[in-house]
Design goal:
There is one protein chain. The protein is about 55% helix and about 5% strand. By secondary structure, it is of the alpha/beta class. It folds into 2 domains: about 50-135 and about 170-500, no CATH class; about 510-570 and about 605-689, Transcription Regulator spoIIAA (2-Layer Sandwich). The strands form 3 sheets. Strands 5, 6, 7, 8, 9, 10 and 11 form a 7-stranded mixed beta sheet that branches. A two-stranded antiparallel sheet has the order 1-4. Strands 2-3 form a two-stranded antiparallel ribbon. α24 (about 625-640) links the parallel β9 and β10. α8 runs antiparallel to α21 (about 485-505) and α10 (about 260-280) packs parallel to α17 (about 435-445). GO terms for molecular function: secondary active sulfate transmembrane transporter activity. Belongs to the SLC26A/SulP transporter (TC 2.A.53) family. It catalyses: oxalate(in) + sulfate(out) = oxalate(out) + sulfate(in); oxalate(out) + 2 chloride(in) = oxalate(in) + 2 chloride(out); nitrate(in) + chloride(out) = nitrate(out) + chloride(in); iodide(in) + chloride(out) = iodide(out) + chloride(in).
Length: about 700
């Protein structure tokens, strides 16, 4: 039977587009109100805030995150190659802006180790090109902690035009200029992606690519912190192969290790890891996480200050951290042009991590987010803070998990965290002057535990899916051994190639009948299947298009043990020989048989089937080459008196076949060529003479 297709209603796309444009361009008070409430979601949920139910959870989670945020902000400044004050600025402004514009109730937006690393690599490269010394181990400046003064060792000046005035800019000034320009461009890209609804870009970053990218970047972060752990002074490596070059320099200078930094690092790592393990084991009993990082920083700062570790043992310390806010400044346009390309992967990674975390926690706590608004939120979390000497931000998994475990209900907790950071910015920042850099490096390295533990999951990942494991390994290796940006690109391209290869060489099978049923399955995979007499059933588990056409034909000929083109050539050759014998008057054929017996010898090899059923259930689409391939096998097998029947075609495949003329001009033979189940096709083939 042939099912009747519904008549499609023609859609006037032009009229729809015109109507949408009119609706978009119209401006009414109600529409303006809806726009503002959509753009600032806080206007929707804040009036409905259940104070008695939510406030204590938000305050507790906000305080805990704020306490965790301060030491992490100071530590991640090492990754970004900037002063700690800029990390504190970033944490403050990101929390405030996401509170206003974000749609997730739980994610913690702020500094993130991976983003800080990407920013730091661009900053280091541009500093090197500008002629600055990348050695950041010079003695810290004392005095009032003004950010306008650079270290004495960095005497190179860079002419920078600011507000029409040609001014000299030192290393620190130029570094934050690069970071803000990079952050501004990343935010602009994210806002443009939101305007043009390009959030689908994140679909090309699979879980394997993201995990591999994060793990590879974690190895790079770990490598960059080793010199602080042992207190050696080596140049900051730049460019491709940074990880290998850094380790070579570390082993070359290992004899210069600072014994004070080594001992301090060992103690801090033991304390931090032990506290983390205890926290993980008893997290269900603890009402809030142990503020281990803050305790370690406070104790280490006191020991360093009163023990005079910098003066006596030459241990590298953080230096002066000023209080208050620096006057805002527009990012330099000339610097934006230099980092425009670097900002693109930064924007994509920042957005993908934020949206994926938002969706994960929205699903867990049964509410919805708007991915497009998340893109606007994270974009403006980069654009606006870039005017206030901040760098790129993203959502962070570790802080978000802590936030939810301490009772967070809304983004009010983000405001509380921002107030804690503000307290440090206004009053407490100078107290961290004597904090050793090796302590900050320990905090960073211990925070990488989750990403580095991915290596333990490789065997389980391999058992689940070998191709995904290969994607993870390639992405991780490229991110660690080449560079993070190249690693991300390699991961995306390689994962796409894997998909293409899997469609180029998909599984193919001949099917047998499950006994006493109307169902058919792979004869090589299942026992006790019955072959169908005089019928071959071929399954192709992929779309049929130009890239796998040859594989389709080779697999079909191999499994059916018959190449119709070769068979037709054999027949023509034999017929030619027969004609030559007849012309000579020899009534015996080339095989010594009579003319009446030649029909038995026309086919050198006996064909054991009279119908070929192609199971199209796994063929999702056909291109022009695919349609022509099916027309080709239809013609070739017809020359051998073998009928080709198609089964289980989806509507789009049927439409492609109709447009390609597979069923003839009037579709008159369609009922004899197309079937809605394999069993119907088999019954039809058996009824044929």
């Amino acid at each position: 039977f042939l099912m009747e297709r519904k008549t499609r209603v023609k859609i006037n796309r032009k009229a729809i587009m015109v109507a949408k444009l009119r609706k978009s361009c119209s401006c009414t008070p109600q529409k303006l109100k809806n726009f503002l409430m959509d753009f600032f979601p806080v206007l929707r949920w804040l009036p409905k805030y259940r104070c008695k139910e939510y406030i204590w959870g938000d305050i507790m989670s906000g305080l805990v995150i704020g306490i965790i945020l301060v030491p992490q902000a100071i530590a991640y400044s090492l990754l970004a190659g900037l002063k700690p004050i800029y990390s504190l600025y970033t944490s403050f402004f990101a929390n405030i802006i996401y509170f206003l514009m974000g749609t997730s109730r739980h994610v913690s937006v702020g500094i993130f180790s991976l983003i800080s690393l990407m920013v730091g690599q661009v900053v280091d490269r541009e500093l090197l090109l500008a002629g600055f010394d990348l050695n950041d181990d010079a003695p810290p400046a004392s005095g009032d902690g003004s950010l306008q003064n650079d270290n004495p060792s960095n005497t190179t000046a860079f002419n920078l035009t600011i507000a029409g005035i040609n001014a000299e800019c030192g290393k620190e000034c130029y570094a934050i200029g690069i970071a803000t320009a990079l952050t501004f461009m990343a935010g602009v890209y994210q806002v443009l992606m939101g305007i043009f609804r390009l959030g689908f870009v994140s679909m090309y970053l699979s879980e394997s690519v993201l995990d591999g990218f994060a793990t590879g970047a974690s190895l790079t972060i770990l490598t960059a912190q080793v010199k602080y752990l042992i207190g050696i002074k080596i140049p900051r490596s730049q460019g491709h192969g940074m990880l290998v070059i850094t380790w070579i320099n570390i082993f070359r200078n290992i004899s210069q290790a600072n014994i004070c930094d080594v001992i301090t690092s060992a103690i801090c790592i033991v304390v931090l890891v032990t506290a983390k393990e205890i926290g993980d084991r008893y997290k269900h009993k603890l009402k809030f996480p142990l503020p281990t990082e803050l305790v370690v920083i406070v104790v280490a700062t006191l020991v360093s200050h009163y023990g005079k570790l910098n003066e006596v043992y030459a241990s590298s310390v953080s230096g002066a951290i000023p209080t208050g806010f620096i006057p805002p400044k527009v990012p330099e346009f000339n610097l934006m042009l230099r980092v425009a390309l670097d900002a693109l992967p930064l924007a994509i990674v920042s957005f993908v991590f934020t949206v994926s975390l938002s969706e994960m926690f929205a699903k867990k706590y049964a509410y919805t987010i708007r991915a497009n608004q998340e893109m606007f939120a994270v974009g403006f979390c980069n654009i606006i803070p870039s005017f206030f000497h901040s760098f790129a931000t993203s959502a962070a998994l570790a802080k978000t998990l802590v936030k939810t475990s301490t009772g967070c209900q809304t983004q009010i907790s983000g405001v509380i965290s921002a107030m804690v950071v503000l307290l440090v910015l206004l009053f407490l920042a100078p107290l961290f002057y004597s904090l050793q850099k090796c302590v900050l490096a320990c905090i960073i390295i211990v925070s990488l535990r989750g990403a580095l533990r991915k290596f333990r999951d490789v065997p389980a990942r391999y058992c689940v899916n070998k191709v995904d494991t290969l994607v993870w390994v390639v992405t991780m290796s490229a991110s660690a051994l080449v560079s993070t940006e190249i690693g991300l690109l390699v991961g995306i391209v390689f994962s796409m190639l894997c998909i293409i290869v899997r469609t180029q060489r998909p599984r193919t099978a001949l099917l047998g009948q499950i006994q006493d049923t109307s169902f058919y399955e792979d004869d090589l995979e299942y026992e006790n299947l019955s072959p169908v007499p005089k019928v071959k059933i071929f399954r192709f588990e992929a779309p049929l298009y130009y890239a796998n056409r040859n594989y389709f034909l080779k697999s079909l000929y191999r499994l059916t043990n018959l190449d119709p083109n070769l068979e037709a050539a054999r027949r023509k050759k034999y017929e030619k020989k027969e004609k030559q014998h007849l012309k000579k008057g020899n009534h015996k054929t080339a095989n010594g048989l009579g003319i009446g017996e030649t029909t038995l010898q026309l086919v050198p090899k006996e064909i054991d089937f009279q119908a070929l059923v192609v199971d199209c259930s796994s063929i999702s689409f056909l291109d022009t080459t695919g349609v022509n391939t099916l027309k080709e096998i239809l013609k070739d097998y017809k020359n051998l008196n073998i009928s080709v029947l198609l089964a289980c075609c989806n509507p789009s495949v049927i439409d492609s076949l109709k447009r390609g003329g597979y069923f003839g001009k009037d579709f008159g033979c369609m009922q004899e060529m197309l079937f809605y189940s394999i069993h119907n096709a088999v019954l039809f083939a058996k009824d044929q003479k």
